Amino acid sequence: MVDVPQLVEQARQGRPRAVARLISLVEGAAPELREVMAALAPLTGNAYVVGLTGSPGVGKSTTTSALVTAYRKTGKRVGVLAVDPSSPFSGGALLGDRVRMSEHASDPGVYIRSMATRGHLGGLAWAAPQAIRVLDGAGCDVILVETVGVGQSEVEIASQADTSVVLLAPGMGDGIQAAKAGILEIGDVYVVNKADRDGADATARELNHMLGLGESRAPGDWRPPIVKTVAARSEGVDEVVEALEKHRAWMEEHGVLAERRRARAAHEVETIAVTALRERIGDLSGDRRLEALAERIVAGETDPYRAADELVDGVTNGG
Amino acid sequence: MVDVPQLVEQARQGRPRAVARLISLVEGAAPELREVMAALAPLTGNAYVVGLTGSPGVGKSTTTSALVTAYRKTGKRVGVLAVDPSSPFSGGALLGDRVRMSEHASDPGVYIRSMATRGHLGGLAWAAPQAIRVLDGAGCDVILVETVGVGQSEVEIASQADTSVVLLAPGMGDGIQAAKAGILEIGDVYVVNKADRDGADATARELNHMLGLGESRAPGDWRPPIVKTVAARSEGVDEVVEALEKHRAWMEEHGVLAERRRARAAHEVETIAVTALRERIGDLSGDRRLEALAERIVAGETDPYRAADELVDGVTNGG
């Protein structure tokens, strides 16, 4: 038996093993999941959640690590959730990054957690917000969520942050890639990392153009800043923190932060509800009902819509 | 009022406007959608569905066009469903490709349809199988489904084909990209296009290695062939058709074709059912129930799971 109240209390005290245990319970959809979530509810809502996304190779891990250092200097407790197969946290990256991050490993004010990407749609989007909740409830002031910027589910995760940072690097054709993945639309702050390389100014200009930042905006509108950094040497990182704090202040002033959090919670609830309903369908297919319907469709005896009606009836009427 | 039986009859006769109309009804989730699907059910199951996927720039459209020509030579009726923002069919590609495809536009034995990618998860995966059903019911012998090979939803669409073709081109780092997107696992046939370029042999070798094609397999197992093509000059395209026909024969011999179609139908039904249930949740949020729950979560008064329980109860008990 897991003593959930004790675990939550230990997590509040900043014990990393308790935090790790809670996230594992959440991630693995353990029987205690609901008890954990209920216990955390009154403790959440304090963390500032920053999403960082970008193509592989732009320096997300290095930037994340530099941001951790910057926030630690101001005494903040920092949580890092790395949702990235190429991240050092999940073991796929360069030794340099790993060493870089390991300096934070011994800091009790930093909690680092990696999360493997799941194979099915919605899987990750479902687990990440719960892990964020654990870090929030454990007293993190800032949570950095690092995701690799390809695919819809990563965009979805990034959209669950209070502030989304999109990273680019010169000469990687990132502009096009980013536009394709739809991540250009989600940035509140843009970072052109590796700004000591050729083409950094061109990348910033291209970005400025693509985002229409030169155009006039209504007063009070947020104009996403483009910050140039060399994260490996911590250059420009304080400016990123400054941009983040400005965005946060702007959101609070305009009621955007509360609105984003409501939208995030609504999305979270909907995802969980849909997952639960999907599971009920899965239970139905346990008695071969789904398989039998599929056979009838292949045989041309019914169509997918009539078949779906039967499934829905089965779920909603307990049939 | 739409006369669905008449439209279906005209589509059977190969009238492109009727086919276009049916797909539009299906894509737009028109009120007639269910009637269309019911009318098509007994007419489907004859088409051989081939999925083609790969990164932008590998020559998917050119290869698709060359395959259309090859199949037309054997008198087959061919449907093309292009699910790709960079495809000529949806207007984003090079003039050369457009001209190339336009030769088929006047051929009554070819039906070409583009499909825009949707913004939300599951949207496209939901519409594409229905469009395939229309083309199948309209009497296409072969349906080529061209998708851009990035992201989970494209992989999902490709997995709904009878045979999946993964395209690569030399010198694009495609191996890594493909592995990342998970598309390397889905290929039944691999095509290294632009094989007249430097590095084609290296790409084929790398692919051969990554797929473990050098390793021994159980007798009767399918060993995905790697075909080198220069689609722009139709070189190797007959070999691709041959590989497709071999795969189809192998699937029929081993009961794999029927199994894949059953799995596809099951997935389709499940997707429709989940979408229907999601819509019911959407209806609930119409009366601000979801919003109210979200506010209570943000305030720490409840957690997402308890909130989701309320939503699910509302859906399943009509509450």
From TrEMBL, chains A, B:
Keywords recorded for this protein, A-Z: Chaperone, GTP-binding, Hydrolase, Nucleotide-binding
Gene (name only): meaB
Pfam families linked to this entry: MeaB
Family: Belongs to the SIMIBI class G3E GTPase family. ArgK/MeaB subfamily.
CDD domains named in the record: MMAA-like
Organism in which the protein naturally occurs: Streptomyces bugieae
Residues passing through the membrane, by range: none
Tagged with keyword Oxidoreductase: no
InterPro entries (alphabetical): GTPase/Isobutyryl-CoA_mutase, GTPase_ArgK, P-loop_NTPase
Name used for this protein in its record: Methylmalonyl Co-A mutase-associated GTPase MeaB
